[in-house]
Amino acid sequence: MSQKCTHKSEKELSQVYTDSDSSIKWFAIREDSLKTIREIANKLSDKNIPHKVNLAPGCKNGSCALKYILIVPEDQVKNGLLVVEDYFISLHPEFKKSKELEEQGKCPACGFDNGHNAAICADCGLQLIVEY
């Protein structure tokens, strides 16, 4: 008999965290291993972006590795997400080129010029717009 994993989905990560001693709303910007969360948190500190680390709700049966959630105040979500993006670009420089192509309306896989509103690359078939 298999047990179902109860790990939180990406949609559930959009949960709002509120301090009991203030009206500040905190939003999750990343769920990952403690090592990765610490590295991103250091970059947030470098940019003076307030943040907290919470233990992510996990599997009740113990099959999921421990995950942590990095949260920032509501007014810092955009800045926090840019820091997360920069962190991953520093690990994978090829993402920068893909992002540049995407901003130009070109397919990040083949470079075909699809325009900015294309959902699928007309040349290679890559899905360009992902809806959640």
From the helix content, strand content and strand pairing, which structural class follows? alpha+beta
Determine and state the CATH class of the largest domain.
Alpha Beta
**Beta-strand level of the residues, as a percent range?**
15-25%
What fold name stands as the CATH topology of the largest domain? Alpha-Beta Plaits
SSE pattern, N- to C-terminal: EEHEEHH
Mean pLDDT: 82
The helical percent reads 25-40%
Summarize the structure.
By secondary structure, the protein is an alpha+beta fold. The chain has 2 domains: 81 residues, 2-Layer Sandwich (Alpha-Beta Plaits); 29 residues. Helix content is 29%, strand content 16%.
How would you describe what is shown here?
With 132 residues, the chain is α+β, with helices and mostly antiparallel strands. It has 2 domains: 11-91, Alpha-Beta Plaits, CATH 3.30.70; 104-132. The protein is built from 3 helices and 4 strands; from the N terminus they run E-E-H-E-E-H-H. It has a 4-stranded antiparallel beta sheet. The longest helix has 15 residues, at 77-91. It is elongated, with a radius of gyration of 18 Å. The two termini are 32 Å apart. Mean pLDDT is 82; it is low at 1-14.
